[in-house]
What we know:
The chain is an all-alpha fold. It contains seven helices and no strands. Helix 6 (about 140-165) runs antiparallel to helix 7 (about 175-205). The protein is elongated.
Amino acid sequence: MTSIASFLRGNDREFFDLFERAGENIVRAAGLLDEMLAEYPERRALAPDILACERVGDQITHDIIRRLNQSFVTPIDREDILQLTSALDDIVDFTEEVADYLGLYNIEAPMEQAQTLAHLLTSATVEIAASIRLVRGFKDISEHTVEVHRLENQGDRTVREAIASLFQVGIDPTVVICWKDIFERLENAIDSTERAAYILEGIVIKNT
């Protein structure tokens, strides 16, 4: 028997299909950046593939907003749909900016901390994608979101260490500025995974 709460939420599951596509896209984008930095500059040619992910993310965002505007009743709160869409889109946007800045600044070799952050980002996106699949049925996602929070904390520590290392005596100020920009975007990408985790946690709580 269908509950009143379920009826009020609506039965339109296309939103979950779109969110799962977005989850797959953030994993692909982060994985490409991880691979790019692990073997940079040999793999700098992956930058266009990451840009392609950013464009896919924009299209998914457009499809979600279009669907939202066409729907009278939604399976989860409209505000949650908008916030989750924004967080997932931010992950890909910041990821693409890192790849773009590596080329824009003519980076010749990666810093170890950047490689670490790209790997943390990839791991966090995998956890977010797993959470999204479970949210379709409003199942427990705590195992995945707790891991995202842990990865974000590790990312914060790595960024602090990386930026501190840039201010050592003898480092070209131009290099400092370039890498600071890159580290900040890596941090923003990882922070966006945590924001997505908080939103997903809220969705599960509201609907169980």
